[in-house]
Amino acid sequence: MYDLLFPGGGPAVDFYRAHADRQGGRVLELGCGTGGKLIPIAADGHPCVGLDNSAQMLAEAARKAHGQGVAVEWVQGDMRAFDLGRTFDLVTIPANSLLHLHEAQDLVRCLRSARDHLAPGGRVVFDIFSPSVHLLAGADGMRRARESLTFTDPVRGTVRVEVAETYDARDQVTRGTWHLSTDAEPDFAVVPLEIRSIFPQELLLLLELGGLRLLDRFGDWSGGPFTAQSQLQLCICEAA
User: Fold this and answer.
1) Closest of 129, 122, 126, 95 to residue 110, by C-alpha
2) What is the DSSP letter of 223?
3) DSSP H or E stretch at residue 68
4) For residues 181 and 187, is the Cβ–Cβ distance under 8 A?
5) pLDDT tens, 124-165?
6) Radius of gyration of the chain from its Cα atoms, rounded to whole angstroms
7) How far, in Å, CA of 20 to CA of 46, rounded?
8) Smallest Cα–Cα separation from 99: which of 223, 239, 232, 240?
9) For residue 143, what are the contacts with CB-CB under 8 A and spacing of at least 6?
10) CA distance 60 to 117
């Protein structure tokens, strides 16, 4: 269901594959989910490890990789604190995965753990959205359709998605409830999703506390500059 809702491919996968090719060597992805970004990198010939807290996500990732004849090492673990006993030339945290950590100290712990797994000359690359005050203010708890997220399930048919969100300004967390429905099965799945916001200047302090130095911050997948209008913070970091 996750892969139907968030299909793979696209410019994000192209960016991470290209960066893995430029960096070379071993790749570690934190919050790898079902492997939508890591499996293509492994298919390009890079030794890859994917870490995630969800056994179900990892099982689906392993099934997909096996079906494509791609070798990836899948590890269940907490991206705030892990020790794989080796280093990597590239550590990635794609698809807003960092934002599942809500406390500042947890974010710092994750960044430090990523830094501690970097080989000399290694890079940490991640993407998070750039918060919009306008959108956050509009998170009023009303349930609204997300037409862009409509997808087709091979069993259920057309699945519609509605989301109700509120923004907790103290914690900087958007607390949402996702409702998945078909004509025959209203609300067959009701799923909570809580995502933190990290503002651009705050991010610099978190990186410093995490022992990382920001080398580049892009505002889109083509490598355009990060501006006040950018919806994306795509960051390239090294050990400080």
Assistant:
1) 126
2) -
3) none
4) yes
5) 999 999 999 999 999 999 999 999 999 999 999 999 999 999
6) 18
7) 8
8) 232
9) 162, 163, 164, 177, 179
10) 25
Phi, psi of 83 (to 5 degrees): -145, 105
Question: What span, in angstroms and rounded, lies between the C-alpha atoms of 185 and 183?
Answer: 6
The pLDDT of residue 9: 82
* Angle 59-64-66 from CA coordinates, rounded to 5°: 95
57-83 burial, b if ≥16 CB within 10 A, otherwise e? bbebbbebbeeeebebebeeeebbebe
Can you tell me the distance from the alpha carbon of 95 to that of 118, in angstroms, rounded to the nearest whole number? 20
Q: Which two tokens stand for residue 212?
A: 């990382």
199-223, pLDDT tens digit by residue? 999 999 999 999 999 999 999 999 9
Structure tokens at 166: 């509120």
Angstrom distance (rounded) from CA 66 to CA 12: 23
Dig out the tokens for 208 from the structure: 């410093």
- Report how far Cα 27 is from the mean position of its chain's Cα atoms: 15
* Euclidean distance between CA atoms 65 and 71, whole angstroms: 7
DSSP string, 85-139: SS-EEEEEE-TTGGGG--SHHHHHHHHHHHHHTEEEEEEEEEEEEPP-HHHHHT-
- What is the average pLDDT value for the chain, to the nearest integer? 97
Reduced to 3 states (helix: H, G, I; strand: E, B; else coil), residue 45 is: coil
List the helix and strand counts (H, then E) for the chain.
7, 12
Vertex 126, ends 34 and 80: CA angle to 5°?
75
Helix 200-209, helix 104-116: angle, nearest 10? 50
Coil, helix or strand at residue 201: helix
